[in-house]
Specification:
single chain, 1490 residues, mainly alpha, two-stranded antiparallel sheet
């Protein structure tokens, strides 16, 4: 049975026989076995060479199994096979794999397939075995005449075991029979399912048990059996395991497993297994694993609730009321099943549902009706024509893992059989088998547990039977209580599962669960979430068993035992902490919702047990690790304090330090000479409130709400578990504001409006909590209307305290400001003020971070910091940015830095949020103070801005009479300013009522919060934002966490009221108002400020001097005046979009001359294509290949492989010569022949590869602009990434009426025209050649862009960005992007583009250029990932990427894809999983990966 030993015994001729093609022997061997007789007296006529044929056939199947096993192992880990194989066996094993990778999959398991096709089991083996056994029984099992028959029966057993051996197509499974092809795997399963049906329906199991009893020595002790008897026992147990393993067919409900269960009950197969398990400790190790596997396969589909739902209804001792309740439960179960079928049916229908803009797929049929009308029907396929298109809606990146289906049984007899075996096993052999397997598994290393499924099966059995024992005990107690008309109390007796409730086993479960969960942190270890779920299930059932022992134990000893077990579990705190971490880290795309429900149940039982122990006075201690710090020297003497505040602070600090030193001295009495920090175990009293507070987090509440979303399908108990924690957090810890979120209220509204919930008493706690939470919110909102805005945000702890007790947040900030002021005043004496509070806030996070940091003594070099700065901007959006930077450090600088070190360094450099943990004080974010402006200047700004907004259309009509007048816009602007006046007026009154009357300055910024959709529209008005900016109000700032406009705290109350009055007065001015006379005192300053933006405050000292000059003008109109600087005195009512005229002119950029030796067309030099020119190409070769193409398409059928070979063997220029030779030689059009002979995706790819230069790009441009609108993504990809030569070829190949440039202008000329100008400039080919980067010029360009970006008016910045990105080479753009962040200190290049352009078409185009210039291979690799990830494949995008990059840099793109974007797989693996057939071969050949 050990395949490795068998393989070592194979000699050279045997190995050659394994490799030979023996498929022709199968029919001969099957004929030699015998045939079913035509007469009824002998159903099966056994052949003369029956035993020889069976032995030969068993040998062929065995060698084929060994061959497939070791082909899989050698292909997955060839290096390990070379190390472990040895010098003698290595050549033989390597020859076993010679044929596998080069041949087609048809040669894999060919013998097995032939046997399945000939129905070996049902037509040959089963009839033969029955006939042999009947003859043996008639002759006597121990007679000499039965020995030849016994040999035949034993050989048939081997054949049946071999044929039913478990199959797998998972390469990580090294124990089962590996089937490479998924289609062949499904076909082989059908063969095994037919074999299973034959084995359970023809008395085969009866004869197997008979033969097993006669040959295996079951009546003997394990050590008294002979080696032959032990081998026979292993063979029969393996056959039983294999029969149980075979799954049910997926396409039909045949209940094959249920029929197998009934057959085994009839033949008492499981009774034999249970009896063997009674003395399992004495059995060989292989028998132990086989017995565990048999029981796991027997119960693998079972769910305790489904199994025991109607079991008690069939008990004759149950009274009529119990039968009625059970009948109601049956009806409820039936309704649930009907609902499940309806949901599945609706899901299948939804997948085929036609949506808007869909067209019929396949061939159409026209049916003429009798009334003269006709209708069109589809004949082709279920797929729609736009099945794989993603333009109209992008699929979600992550999808939740499918949940387990509900168990359905063939009949009640199946439940009886399962319950009978479960009861017998629990009573007789559950404890011996569990103890034996725990002893085996506990001694194994972690990699051994991960390499097989033994631990997972053991966990499944433990969880299932602990749950089964609890439910079975409760049902029995309920029946007994009803019979005695007594109350159900103290019903739980854990004696049957006492082996599970032992400290070593519980520790093993917790450790295993921790290990499986921690594997997610290491990219080289695959986290198997199914194993995590099984381990978590066992932990949950163990905690639940403790809960039942404490609350429902049958006696005082049981309850005391439960308290003791839980105290031991809580003392280490590993289990509760593990559940807490798993809830925080839960992700729907990785694990099922069932896994999260296990965590929820475990938390509930843990909380209930802690409460019970606390009420009964049980002491709860927790052991935690604490670091013993170094001995500190005595504190240095401090200078005397001069003020009472400093004296108080100093004394407080000295007292804290003395207490700290005293505590450290007590901990370090025995280790005075140890200078290093040592981790010690310290016990402290368990803090239940702190434990609950750890669950008061937005992420935990969100995970619980994710469970509650399925409140209608959840059990009432699971909903009650969720609500139990919610009540604890909301009303006991006063964290109710955690639930004040818009998405939660939508769920509450759905629950409260569900009539089914209102009529169900089991859901009363859920209804009560929803009602209570909503009422509490509206009660608080009556006194705090801002909560209607805060409902859209998750709450921090400080925000929750401020909602519960208004003013707490302000007091916190005031105390923090006082500590900061005391620190500044006190100097060295008060330098440590507030350090304890700061350290206490972040001590836990900081300590964990530094423990995981693994800090190296090697200092960071300048080159390492420069590399982090250069690459962080390009990969900051990636979730694994630290891992990517780690790879760059290793490959480019040979630097070995861990991921925590890189993350910490990014914080130190300021590239990510959060300062370095090494600093004692936190770095606060800088707040930009408003400019100092006098009230006269503010009055001038308000009058001019408001007047301009209220009469914008009429003033424009005065300058241009043809302009249409839109009074609605003017009235809208006027209403917006009147609303702003009301807001400022109310704000003035509110602030005046809350601050001290002796001062007119407030200490915090005040936000202007809109309350209605109309108010939000007002806040987005360009004239409102322009006015607020000029007045010095603070704009929304994501870096400061502010999403509203704010009144600066530097403003005085009188200034707010005056500005509000000025706004109201300005709205009442007529159109011909003399603004010059009204604002004469501040006109020059206002004009200067409006024109120069941020530079105005630097010019304020010199601005007031030219003020008298406007007064000398006789004209009152504020038109251009004869000033020395007419640009500064331009019309004050200029459009906000116009750029300031006083901006200095930039020097015109002149591209440097590039040496031809240094020039390269692509952003990176020496790019490697996947399709290169054939060096042996000539005209004769072109004619030969043209002839080959003609042969491949001539006559019936088409040789696609030959077409693929010719297409990928030559580059585009050579293919054009072959096409010309083809057209001239055969007077045919090669493209038309391709379209005629090929079809589907293969045809489109081949035609695109043979298109003339530039033609394919031109077709893509036409597709992008065809129809209504245009495709921005496609235009950006084609135009923004092509060289000047490629753009010229594309325009030459354009075949439409107007040119590409004219068509682009026609389609994209809208708005400010930046996008149109950018595309046209690129099409004109103004980008210079790539060469060495000019660092000085790049610095000048970056400084210029940053300077324009800092201005209030962004029109000039937009023009400069477009100019730089269209007239600089890609190398120069990469250089500019790399140093821009160092110059800006605030934005990356990507962020600067978003600030200047928002998220429009121009921004996307510039970001495409920046990403392509900085990391071209990553740009294309990400696009390939987008084309193939998720359900379905975007074949149009995949075809475009392969065709356009094959002769440029596709080989480099494939390498980068496998390293960073393949999720551990290569590009070839992705293509194989998303494509098939000839199309797959073509894609692999294009990538040079065939």
């Amino acid at each position: 049975m050990d395949s490795e030993d068998e393989l070592d015994e194979l000699d050279a001729p045997t190995t050659a026989a394994v490799l030979a093609d023996q498929s022709q022997e199968i029919p001969t061997l099957l004929s030699a076995i015998g045939a079913i007789g035509e007469s009824g007296r002998k159903p099966f006529q056994r052949g003369e060479q029956c035993y020889t044929a069976l032995a030969r056939l068993e040998y062929l199947l065995r060698t084929e199994y060994i061959k497939s096993r070791f082909e899989q192992r050698d292909s997955d880990d060839a290096d390990e096979a070379e190390e472990d194989g040895g010098s003698g066996a290595q050549p033989q094993r390597s020859r076993l794999t010679v044929k596998t990778r080069d041949d087609d999959d048809n040669s894999n398991n060919d013998m097995f397939e032939k046997c399945g096709e000939f129905m070996l089991v049902s037509k040959k083996l089963v009839p033969c075995f029955k006939g042999v056994m009947q003859e043996m029984i008639a002759l006597g099992m121990d007679s000499s005449r039965s020995r030849p028959l016994l040999q035949i029966a034993h050989c048939v057993m081997k054949m049946l075991t071999r044929f039913t051996f478990p199959l797998t197509h998972d390469t990580s499974n090294t124990h089962d029979n590996y089937i490479a092809s998924s289609k062949k795997y499904e076909r082989f399963l059908e063969y095994q399912q037919s074999a299973k049906k034959a084995l359970i329906e023809n008395d085969v199991l009866h004869y197997v048990i008979t033969l097993m009893s006669a040959q295996c020595g079951l009546e003997l002790e394990a050590n008294a059996r002979s080696e032959l008897q032990t081998d026979s026992l292993e063979l029969y147990l393996c056959l039983i395991r294999n029969i149980l393993w075979i799954p049910n067919p997926t396409h039909s409900e045949t209940f094959l497993h249920d029929r197998c269960v009934l057959a085994m009950q009839q033949e008492q197969v499981m009774d034999v297994v249970v009896e063997l398990a009674c003395n399992v400790a004495e059995e060989p190790e292989k028998v132990q694993y086989l017995l565990t596997d048999i029981l796991y396969q027997y119960f693998r589909m079972e769910d305790v609730d489904s199994l025991l739902l109607d079991e008690h209804n069939h008990n004759p001792h149950v009274n009529a009321n119990a039968n009625a309740d059970a009948a109601d439960a049956v009806h409820a179960n039936t309704d649930d099943l009907c609902q499940q079928y309806e949901r599945e049916k609706l899901q299948r229908k939804q997948r085929l549902r036609r949506t808007r803009h869909n067209k019929w797929g396949g061939v159409s049929r026209i049916t003429h009706l009798r009334n003269g009308q006709s209708r069109v029907q589809s004949l082709g396929t279920d797929l729609m024509s736009n099945e794989h298109m993603r333009d109209r809606g992008k699929q979600k990146r992550f999808r939740a893992v499918g949940e387990q289906r509900k168990r359905i049984y063939l009949s009640a007899k199946v439940k009886h059989a399962l319950c009978y075996v479960a009861d017998v096993w629990l009573r007789k052999s559950f404890t011996p088998l569990m103890n034996a397997m725990h002893a085996k598994l506990a001694r194994k290393a972690e990699f051994e547990l991960n390499a097989n499924q033994d631990c997972k099966k053991w966990f499944s059995l433990v969880a299932l039977f602990v749950h089964y024992h609890r439910v079975r005990s409760r049902l029995s107690a309920v029946q007994q209580a009803r019979a005695q008309s007594a109350r159900l109390t103290n019903w739980y007796a854990p004696s049957a599962i006492e082996c599970v409730l032992r400290a070593p086993l519980i520790q093993f479960v917790v450790t295993r669960t921790e290990t499986l969960f921690e594997n997610r942190k290491h990219k080289h270890l695959a986290c198997d979430w199914h194993r995590v779920q099984e381990a978590l299930h066992v932990y949950k059932e163990i905690v639940r068993a403790m809960y039942n022992m404490v609350y429902y134990g049958e006696d005082e000893q049981t309850r005391a035992r439960g308290v003791q077990l839980f105290a031991q579990l809580l003392e280490e705190h590993r289990g509760p902490q593990l559940i807490h971490d798993m809830i925080h880290e839960y992700k729907p795309h990785q694990s099922t919702k069932r896994c999260l429900s296990y965590c929820v149940e475990a938390v509930y039982y843990t909380v209930m047990l802690i409460e019970h122990m606390s009420k009964h006075g049980s002491q709860l201690n927790v052991t935690h690790r604490k670091r013993k710090r170094k001995k500190r020297s005595a504190p240095a003497s401090r200078p005397p304090s001069t003020t009472n505040e400093q004296q108080e602070v100093t004394s407080h600090e000295q007292r804290e330090e003395e207490e700290q030193h005293q505590a450290e001295d007590e901990e370090d009495d025995d280790d005075d000479d140890d200078d290093s920090d040592v981790a010690v175990l310290v016990q402290k009293e368990f803090d239940f409130e702190q434990f609950l507070r750890s669950y008061a987090a937005n992420k935990v509440v969100a995970q619980y709400m994710y469970i509650l979303e399925d409140y209608a399908t959840n059990s009432a108990k699971l909903n009650s578990f969720v609500i139990h924690l919610f009540n604890k957090l909301a009303f006991e810890l006063n964290y109710a504001p955690l639930f004040f979120h818009f998405s939660y209220f939508l769920l509450f509204d759905e629950i409260l409006n569900d009539a089914r919930m209102l009529n169900n008493k089991n859901h009363a706690p859920l209804i009560k909590f929803c009602t209570r939470a909503v009422r509490l919110f509206f009660n608080k909102a009556q006194t705090n209307p801002v909560m209607f805005c805060e409902i859209f945000f998750f709450k921090t702890v400080l925000a929750i305290d401020d909602i519960n007790e208004p003013g707490n947040a302000r007091q916190h900030y005031v105390k923090q400001a006082q500590r900061e002021a005391a620190r500044k005043r006190g100097g060295a004496a008060a330098d440590m003020i507030g350090m304890d509070e700061i350290c206490d806030e972040d001590f836990e996070d900081g300590e964990d971070e530094y423990q995981a940091l693994d800090v190296d003594v090697t200092a960071w070099t300048t080159s390492e910091d420069e590399l982090l700065r250069n690459y962080f901007g390009s990969y900051s959006a990636q979730p694994n940015v630290a891992h990517i930077l780690q790879q760059f450090l290793e490959t480019e600088l040979q630097s070995t830095r861990s991921v925590p070190q890189i993350t910490h360094r990014l914080r130190v450099l300021g590239l990510v949020k959060g300062g370095a943990r090494g600093n004692v004080t936190k770095e606060t974010k800088k707040r930009v103070k408003p400019k100092t402006i006098s009230m006269d200047e503010r009055k001038s700004i308000i009058y001019r801005c408001v007047h301009r907004a209220c009469f914008v259309q009429q003033l424009q009509q005065q300058g241009n009479p043809d302009t249409e007048n839109d009074h609605d816009t003017e009235q809208q602007n006027k209403r917006a300013f009147l609303w702003l006046h009301d807001v400022l007026d109310r704000t003035h009154g509110i602030i005046a009522a809350h601050i001290d009357a002796s001062t007119s300055v407030f200490d915090v910024d005040v936000s202007i919060v809109p309350m209605t959709p109309l108010h939000f529209t007002y806040m987005q008005n360009l004239y409102i934002t322009d006015l607020l900016t000029k007045l010095g109000y603070l704009a929304p700032n994501k870096y400061m966490g502010a999403c509203w406009w704010r009144i600066p705290r530097e403003f005085k109350l009188t200034e707010i009221s005056q500005m509000a009055q000025y706004i109201k007065d300005a709205t009442e001015l007529p159109i011909d108002a003399d603004l010059h006379q009204l604002c004469v005192q501040s006109e020059v300053v206002s004009e200067s400020e409006a024109g120069n933006g941020d530079n105005a405050e630097h010019k304020q000292p010199s601005e007031p001097e030219p003020e008298p000059e406007p007064e000398a003008e006789p004209e009152p109109e504020p038109e251009p005046e004869p000033e020395p600087e007419p640009e500064a005195e331009a019309e004050p009512e200029a459009e906000p979009e116009e750029e300031p005229e006083a901006e200095p002119e930039e020097e015109k950029y002149v591209a440097p001359e590039i040496d031809e030796a240094d020039a390269h067309p692509q952003p990176l030099p020496e790019s490697r294509p996947s399709i290169e020119a054939n060096a042996e190409f000539s005209e004769d070769v072109a004619k030969e290949q043209a002839e080959e193409l003609r042969k491949s398409m001539k006559g019936l059928g088409t040789n696609e492989r030959k077409i693929i070979a010719v297409t990928t063997a030559y580059n585009l220029e050579q293919r054009q010569q072959i096409a010309a030779a083809y057209n001239a030689e055969y007077d045919r059009d090669l493209k038309e022949d391709f379209e005629k002979e090929l079809s589907g995706k293969l045809e489109k790819m081949i035609v695109a590869l043979w298109a003339p230069p530039g033609r394919y790009d031109a077709e893509q441009i036409n597709e992008a602009v065809e129809g209504l609108g245009f495709s921005t993504a496609l235009l950006n990809e084609i135009i923004c990434t092509r060289t000047n030569e490629q753009l010229e070829l594309m325009q030459s190949a354009w075949w439409k009426g107007m040119s590409i440039i004219d068509r682009i202008k026609k389609e994209t000329h809208s708005g400010n025209g930046n996008y149109c100008n950018l595309l046209v400039t690129l099409l004109e080919g103004k980008r210079p050649s790539n060469g060495p980067a000019d660092a000085d010029q790049a610095k000048l360009d970056a400084e210029m862009l940053n300077r324009y970006l800092s201005q209030e008016k962004t029109s000039s910045a937009k023009q400069k960005f477009v100019q730089v990105f269209t007239t600089r080479s890609w190398v120069q753009i990469r250089e500019i992007s790399g140093i821009f962040q160092d110059i800006s200190k605030k934005y990356t290049m990507n962020g600067a583009i978003e600030k200047a352009f928002g998220d429009g078409d121009t921004a996307k185009a510039l970001q495409t250029i920046d990403e392509f210039a900085s990391q071209p291979y990553d740009y294309w690799a990400k696009k390939m990932q987008d084309a193939m990830k998720g359900m379905g494949t975007d074949d149009e995008q995949l075809r475009r990427l392969l065709v356009t990059r094959a002769e440029i840099d596709l080989r480099d793109i494939a390498i980068v894809f496998g390293q960073r974007y393949g999720d551990g797989k290569t590009l070839a693996n992705w293509i194989k999983s998303d494509t098939s057939g000839d199309y797959e071969d073509l894609c692999l050949a294009i990538c040079a990966l065939e």
